[in-house]
Amino acid sequence: MTKSFYPPLRTLMGPGPSDVSPRVLAALSRPTIGHLDPEFIRMMDEVKEMLQYAFKTSSPLTMPISAPGSAGMEACFVNLVEPGDKVIVCQNGVFGGRMKENVERFGGIAIMVEDEWGTPVDPAKVEAAFAANSDVKLLAFVHAETSTGVLSDAKSLCQIAQNNGALTIVDTVTSLGGSELDVEGWGIDAVYSGTQKCLSCPPGISPVSFSQRAVEVIEQRESKTPSWFLDQKLVMGYWGGGAKRAYHHTAPVNSLYAFHESLVMLEEEGLENAWARHQFHHSALRAGLEAMGIGFLVEEAYRLPQLNSVFVPEGVDEAEVRSKLLANYNLEIGAGLGALAGKVWRIGLMGSACNKQNVLLCLSALENTLSAMGANITKDRAIAAAEAVYSS
After folding, report:
1. Residue 10 belongs to a domain
2. Are the C-beta atoms of residues 14 and 348 closer than 8 Å to each other?
3. Looking at the domain assignment, is residue 6 inside a domain?
4. Which positions does the record annotate as the modified residue N6-(pyridoxal phosphate)lysine (predicted)?
5. Does pTM top 0.85 for this prediction?
């Protein structure tokens, strides 16, 4: 007879999911009520308000999609892209490629702007793409590229789109709650994220927000939105304001309890404080890794504090290291993707996992493991270098 499943207790310092706070886990276990229960609807209103705070927007079309971040991505494209629409898609990692896939699946024309993996989107290339193509409807790009750990200048890119009369779709899956993000201030028209990164919530919910300009485009579509489930005109009947809600789907009630709690925790800490915390612990991790002789893929000016892509020392089997970290320390770090597979590790410092205890655990476990494998690293300096940052 199959027995109940009890997962091991891990420290999650990969590209996601991140460690989930005990408060959020406790919220998951609260009694399930109906998704049209007046108390649940009251909680939904609080989720919307707190999500507007997290995104820094007042847009009423701000809500969690009842599915993972990939569905949030698809919700943005399926509602805004119609057959024949021209979309400039920026690709500097894995997830820009997924944007291209969405554009083409919904009949749009993807105009690619490509940058080397590990570098940010080049605004000059985006300017040139607009200059070379008339009637561009949308600019799509990844704010924080999870596959490389690079941060692009969303504010400048959105300004270029506005100057050319185009809307923007922005992936903020890894930046929401971890890096500066100002959806309304920067003029982002459609934005999506995930709960499992810097919000430290279980996977399965995708926060999205649409500007008034985007709403007008959705309302004026010439063709019916190809997805029934992700059609925002229908979903708003359930997530709209007020006590009267139209049934659309059975919301993941307990998962939304957890999301509510994670947003409460973000409000308690304060957005700017959360951004500063991620930067502070990144500085300690960076000091320790560099003292060990491990370098970073991304230049410091464009580096994500919450997702650190670092080079694997020469001659080291990176998969074996990750396996040993998991077996000996219950510590998970991530592998490289695509062209970076086997060349880098991705070390996450996201949400609840972004703390001093985890930084020191990661440094000591990595040093011990690499030393035992005979890797060419500098020993006995990493912890002291990190502690120097903390003591300062």
Report:
1. no
2. yes
3. no
4. 197
5. yes
Q: Of 217, 130, 121, 215, which Cα lies nearest the Cα of 171?
A: 121
Considering the domain boundaries, does residue 171 fall inside one?
yes
CB atoms within 10 A of CB 104: 15
SS3 category, 392: coil
Tokens representing residue 335 in the block: 């592998």
What is the count of structural domains for the chain?
2
Q: Is 346 flagged in the annotation as binding?
A: yes
- In the block, tokens 């059975």 appear at 250
Helix (H) or strand (E) holding 384: helix 382-391
Instruction: For residues 94 and 119, state if they share a domain.
Output: yes
- In this structure, the answer to whether residues 43 and 187 fall within a common structural domain is yes
Do 189 and 307 lie in one domain? The reply is no
What are the average pLDDT values for consecutive 10-residue runs of the chain, which has 392 residues?
96 97 97 94 95 97 95 98 98 96 98 98 98 97 97 98 98 98 98 97 97 96 94 84 74 96 98 98 98 98 98 97 98 95 97 97 98 96 98 94
Residue ranges with strand state E in 193-242: 206-210
Q: Residues 110, 83: contact at Cβ < 8 Å?
A: no
User: Which residues touch 239 (CB under 8 Å, ≥6 apart)?
Assistant: 44, 48, 63, 245
CA dihedral of 30, 35, 41, 46, whole degrees rounded to 10: 50
| Cα distance between residue 247 and residue 379, in whole Å | 60
Mark which of 238, 268, 298 sits at the end of a domain: 268
